[in-house]
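We examine the record.

___
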Amino acid sequence: MTSISRRNFIYSTAAALSVPATLVTNAITSEAFASPASLDPQIFAEMQREKVWSFFRSFYGDKDNVDVPGFLSHFANSPDDHYQDAVLNFNFKGYSDIASNFTFFLNTLGAKLGKGQFSKIFHVTGDMRYGAIAEYVDLKNTFYSTNGITIQTVFDLDNGLIARDTDYWDTRELGESDIIGPANTTGVALPLGTIHAGGVPLSAPPPVPPGSVFLATGVTGLPSASPEMVEFAKDFHAALAHAPPAEIAEFFTEDAYFVNPLIHQGSVNYGNFDQTIQIRGRRLIGRLLRATVDMLPDCRSSKLIHIVGGPAGGGFEWKAGGSSYGKTGIDRTGLVGCTAIDLFGDRIQRMSVKFDTFQMGQKQYNDIRKALFDAGVVDQ
C-alpha cells in the first residue's frame, strides 16, 4: 500500500470524484456535521479528523497560553465531568472541582513559566460526536525537573464538549531522581515529587481508571464510540488476546506507525514526543508481535475496558491480567493503559500504546526489551 498524506488524499479524492478541491476543504472546515451517507467514506473520515484537530488545538492552545476561561469553555460544565490521572491515581469530579483546580494550576504555571511554556499537542484521533484520544507533552519544569512527559489522554465527549478525560503516561520518560527520588524541584512550577519512592512501584487504592464507565458509554450516558469503532475495537482486541501474530498484523496498513514505550532500548529519561519508542511498517510490527505477543500487557489475558471514537479513529482503555500481570499496577490487580488508533479504511494506520512501564515487574520489562532487541525491533 502506497503511503500518501492526508492533504494529498483529499485533493486526489476530490479529483477522482470530479469535486473541486476548494469545496472539499471548505466542507472540512464547516461547523455542521455532514451525513456519512452523503459523502465518500474517506472524505467523511477526513472531515472528522479535521474537526477533532480543530477542537483539541484550541483546548491545548488555551492551556499552553494560560487562557483559563478559554480552556474551561471546552468542558461540558456538568456535575458528571471527570478528570483523572491513571498514573498518580487522583481525580477531579464535577465541573466546579475541575474549574477550581485547573484555574489554580494554570495561573501558577503562567506566573512562574510564562505563556507558551506548558503543553504542546502533537496528535489526536477520534470523532467529535463520541470521543477521542489526544497526545501531548507537558514540558520540562512544569511538573518535573528532569524531563517533560508525553501524555496520552482519553476523552469522552458530550455534544462536542469534554465530559471525561483520563491521562496515561510512562514515568520512565523522566529522570531517575523524579522516578525514585530524591526529586529535585528547583525551577519546577508545580512539583509533583518522587513518583515511585525508593524504586518501589507506587501503590494506592483501586485506581481511577476504568472507574464507573461502560464499554461504549460515556459518563453522561451518551455513546462514547460509534458502532463501527466498537466493532473494530472488539475484533482487534480479541485478536490481541487470542490470535496468532500474523493474523494481528493484518489489521495494520503496510506503512503503519506503531508506538510503544517498551520499544525504548536505553535507560530512563528518554525523549518526549514519542522519540525512541516507535517503529514503522507491517513487516516490523509483525516481527514485534512474533517476539513479544505472549508477554505484552495489552495482549494475552488483557481486558477491554472502554472504547472511544468513530470511523476515522479513536481507541480503547485496557487492563492487563492473567498470571503475568494480575498482581501488577497501582492497586496490584492489573496494569492499566490505553491504545490510540488512526484508521485508514478498515486498517490501522497509526497505533500508540501508553502505560506506566514502571508498574511492570522488572523481569517482565527486561525480558520484553531483550526479545525486541534480539528480533531487531528498535526505534526508527
